[in-house]
Amino acid sequence: DTGVSQDPRHKITKRGQNVTFRCDPISEHNRLYWYRQTLGQGPEFLTYFQNEAQLEKSRLLSDRFSAERPKGSFSTLEIQRTEQGDSAMYLCASSLGLAGARGEQYFGPGTRLTVT
Amino acid sequence: AQTVTQSQPEMSVQEAETVTLSCTYDTSESDYYLFWYKQPPSRQMILVIRQEAYKQQNATENRFSVNFQKAAKSFSLKISDSQLGDAAMYFCAYRSDMEYGNKLVFGAGTILRVKS
Prior knowledge:
The structure holds 2 protein chains of 2 kinds.
Chain A: E1 5-7, E2 10-13, E3 19-24, E4 31-37, E5 44-50, E6 53-57, E7 65-68, E8 75-79, E9 88-95, E10 106-107, E11 111-115
Parallel strand pairs in A: 2-11
Antiparallel strand pairs in A: 1-3, 3-8, 4-5, 4-9, 5-6, 7-8, 9-10, 9-11
Chain B: E1 3-5, E2 10-14, E3 19-21, E4 24-26, E5 32-39, E6 46-52, E7 60-61, E8 64-69, E9 74-79, E10 88-96, E11 104-106, E12 110-115
Parallel strand pairs in B: 2-12
Antiparallel strand pairs in B: 1-4, 3-9, 5-6, 5-10, 7-8, 8-9, 10-11, 10-12
């Protein structure tokens, strides 16, 4: 398996535009997580899915953000009407849906969003 | 809510020497996991070492070891025989042992510089 992949790796957009990012998890992983990382900070949790169900959303996930995982495989994160404050690295991670040590999360390379 | 604090924004170490990165956390839970992740410049995050809170023995992985003090809520990372490839941002992270909601809570990170 090639690990978690994300597309695109970089995105530059103008304020007010919509953007969509894609994450492909490790194939046998049924949990998928989205995090946001701003420059010089640690990642912050946004949301996570178990299979196709979105089970938890952070307060950071405003109404302009929506995430889907339609068939329990890949996931998309859409940001509508982007703002300069949305500029960040968006990280995706996946794990097996097991409690305990087996729930280790594997991270993708991230999508760096710049809003001008 | 759980919080993770890394009080050292930046550390330097001479090649082949030993360095210790500090981390404290706050939680009311008794069962949880602690992690150290490494994020090299422009590269994806990888897991360095993991500690289960119910284990008294400190985890070790080759040159990496932790000092886990549960009562003090302290979780430091020791890197022995530092190598140039160890230069990266290091994040301490907390994860609940609950079946649901096992998102990672990260600290702000410590930049480690390795001098040759």
